[in-house]
Amino acid sequence: MSDVERLEAEAREAIAAAESSQDLVQVRARFLGRKGSVAGILRSIGELPAEERGAVGADANRAKQRIEGWVAERRAALERSSHDADLASHRLDVTLPGAAPPSGRLHPVTRVFRDVLDFFTGMGFSIEEGPEVETDWNNFGALNFPDDHPARDIQDTFFVKGGNVLRTHTSPVQIRAMTGRTPPFRFVAPGRVYRHDSDATHTPMFHQIEGFLVDDRTTFADLKGVLHAFAKHMFGPDTELRFRAHFFPFTEPSAEMDFSYRGGWMEWGGCGMIHPNVLENCGIDPERFQGWAFGMGIDRTAMDRFGVPDLRLMFEGDVRLLEQL
Ligand code: DAH
Questions:
Q1: Where are the domains of the chain?
Q2: With pLDDT > 70 as the criterion, what percentage of the chain qualifies?
Q3: Which fold has domain 108-324?
Q4: Cα radius of gyration (the chain)
Q5: Which atom of ligand 1 lies closest to the CA of 295?
Q6: Is this prediction's pTM over 0.85?
Q7: SS3 for 308?
Q8: Tens digit of pLDDT for each residue in 48-81?
Q9: CA distance 214 to 280
Q10: 297 alpha carbon to ligand 1 midpoint, in Å?
Q11: Average pLDDT in the chain
């Protein structure tokens, strides 16, 4: 074995034994540094007989390149294994299920309202809103209630200081929406209403949806068509409607309607042709224009749809109810 071969073998062993990149720096310096073994051989070439110098110089340079290659290989291997160790110590199982954040739920009434409003906006109705504290005029007077009408009675209506009331129905939104507007128009008005009533089937606050359309030619037949489509949307395609003659001060003629339900009928709401006095109270000429309106509660539909057994559960704000939906 020549000196160069011995040197290479030694270097190879030392490189393989290096356990860290610092070790490796030292090993490299030992063999390839300015004062290292290869440099020593190159330096001593001058002492050799002239005919050997070329071969030893070439050997030494080749050794230098080989050692450089082994060092690079070893460095890469050390880096790889320290990266692997790093990964192993920070092991993360991305297939584990995450912690689900608690999520809110929409109230059944909100969900039914959204469904109803989707349906009516799809038919070209716009959404109108009015305040829950309403004037006596908008809630009663403009809707053609006579001054002595029993609905104004203290037993039904919550009176607010200053002569206002908590609206007892969504019909006053008709007055707000129609006043100052020229037909044709069609609106729906969802919202909270209040009545002095509280037992197993009544709460002092509940929800209604109001709908109305005014133009110069619409008829009760249009009203029935819209209500039929609405009922089928809400309760299923086989749903039928029944209209019973009734009285409301703000419509003439008026009807109550029931929808078919489990072989019988379920009361749903009221409707009719808007009374000429109501149009007049809104500044609309009843000789030129006519319209119809309807209104119904939403809470019972929401209870049926989501299987809520008791009306009072709907408004107690118990999140355990919502979590079940
Ligand atoms: N406002 C009535 C109520 O609360 C319901 C109603 C009946 C609304 C007939 C209407 C209607 O628009 O035309 O009992």
A1: 3-89, 108-324
A2: 99
A3: BirA Bifunctional Protein; domain 2 (3.30.930)
A4: 44
A5: 8
A6: no
A7: coil
A8: 888 888 888 888 889 899 999 999 999 999 999 8
A9: 13
A10: 10
A11: 92
